[in-house]
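#struct-help
A.M.: can someone run this one for me? Single chain, 289 residues.
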Amino acid sequence: IGEVLDNAEAWESTLVQINGASISGSATFAGATTVNDGSGSMTMFTRNSATFASSALPAEPVDMTAIVSQFTDHQLVIRNLEDVGGETGTGGDPEQISLAELRTLFESGASAVPANRFINAVVISDVDANNTDFRNMVIQDETGGIVVRFADPHSFALGEEVEVSVGGDELSEFNGLLQINDVDNADATSMGNGTLPEPRDATIQEILDNAEAWESTLVKVSDVSYTEGGTFSGAKTLDDGTATIATFTRSQATFSGSAVPNGAFTLTAMVSEFNSPQLTLRNLNDIQQ
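D.P.: on it. Structure tokens below:
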């Protein structure tokens, strides 16, 4: 790396081989990562549209071949995975990845799911009640939850177990809510009726304190009440004595015009986010008085 930096202008647009190079800064190749061989460090850039962008970075040092390039500062560009001792194709059987692992990858800077991965989880949103966007499916496994946003409307029902091929799909946030974005509907398969996860008993303050970790999972709040009357439609404020949080109900929801309950009740809901934490009801069965 030190020699490349010293000769970058002269060596620009030529191939170099760097031995014992460690690549870090992200979970996958997509975007800017850092190459270090002990003599110095240098940025490596991979386009998001590269066929290997979502592949995981090598865990150990590699002997790599790269093109010396420049984008304001000098950088390295690999041509394919063979340049870092990998294979150009994905190959092999698909590997299951947990929802917690996907969330950790995103937190580490990944913008796409690693290649050749699938998820298996239970649907906790209710497509029939229409309080979730028609392209969104909220799922939960034993490790956590996430939103799957399909390319087209879906029909996966509350409580259905699904398996979804997500290798290479975009990981992104929409107003703070993590999603696997633009998933091909054909990549999702129903595995029949699943077992809904037990909602986590929590106070509103505990939900606020753990909102990011509990996002897209079920919680149950006891002795909670709405601070205002009217119908469910839009944003309403919940109070359980520990803190307050909003619930949001789409105008298209089948129960949006129903009156909110008077007095205290027990609420089961999905932890969500729209710039700040909120709760989302699935249907009126989520309320017990």
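A.M.: thanks! The helical segments are 2-6, 8-11, 99-107, 204-209, 211-214.
D.P.: also worth noting: The longest strand covers residues 15-24.
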